[in-house]
Amino acid sequence: MFKLAKDFSLDLEAVAKGGVSWDDKLDPASNEVVGSTANELALGLITPEEFAEKVDKAIGRNAPSFFKDQK
């Protein structure tokens, strides 16, 4: 096994907790808003509050119809 792969495997075993991967939990349209809006936030073009507001609106607008069809 390559040293990098072995080191990575050991690092993964040591992880106690992690973050949520939202890209596989949101509808595609809202996920696109999260991505583009995260860039705006990182560039300082919007505030964290504006980020949250834009994402909340996108989820409210897109998720209900997307997940209704996923049952």
Q: What is the count of helical runs?
A: 3
Uncertain residue segments: none
Tell me the series of helices and strands, N- to C-terminal. HHH
Rg, Cα atoms, Å? 17 Å
Q: N-to-C terminal Cα separation, in Å?
A: 42 Å
Folded structure, characterized:
This protein has 71 residues and is mainly α. It has a domain at 28-71. It has three helices and no strands. Helix 2 packs antiparallel against helix 3.
Describe, in short, the structure shown.
The protein is mainly alpha-helical and 71 residues long. The chain has three helices and no strands. It has a domain of 44 residues.
Topology record:
Elements: H1 3-13, H2 28-42, H3 48-68
Helix pairs in contact: 2-3
Search tags:
71 residues; 66% helix
